[in-house]
């Protein structure tokens, strides 16, 4: 969880120009860039990791790319931290729907469009559905997490398409 928080912190510090310079310094390898950012922001203790995060929590900086991708990063990584700690959170429905709409049409970095191709996705707690094919239904946040490949949420989903989704990378 500290690594996820450090990743979120590093991302909040990467305005487009800084991102480009760091990407060049990382040999144009995103995983190397992310690893360097995590190492820089993790700190020596959990308290230090949290201190680094708190210093940027109101930041509006982000790497280049669609704003919807950064909204998705925030929701998904927040859940990556909250769920193992059994901390529940309710996100604004319009934000989660916006992220679901973005992810279902995008293969940018996480490959959600490929992952959900041929499936009908339906939120059970919001007025949202998309796609055609066997259905995957559940709370909108669980649907979004499944779109990103988080297998831990599959138990929150129902429908004929869940088995197919579970088998996709």
Structure description:
The protein is mainly alpha-helical. The protein has helices at 2-12, 16-25, 30-42, 46-56, 67-82, 93-104, 112-116, 140-147, 162-166; strands at residues 120-123, 129-130, 135-138. The protein has a three-stranded mixed beta sheet with strand order 2-1-3. Strand 1 and strand 2 form a beta hairpin. The chain is globular and about 45 Å long. The mean pLDDT is 93.
Radius of gyration: 17 Å
Number of strands: 3
Main sheet summary: 3 strands, mixed
- Please mark out the parts with pLDDT under 50 across 5 or more consecutive residues, or reply none: none
What order do the SSEs take from the amino end to the carboxyl end, as H and E?
HHHHHHHEEEHH
Total number of helical segments?
A: 9
Q: Give the mean pLDDT.
A: 93
Structural classification: mainly alpha
Topology (SSEs and partners):
Elements: H1 2-12, H2 16-25, H3 30-42, H4 46-56, H5 67-82, H6 93-104, H7 112-116, E1 120-123, E2 129-130, E3 135-138, H8 140-147, H9 162-166
Parallel strand pairs: 1-3
Antiparallel strand pairs: 1-2
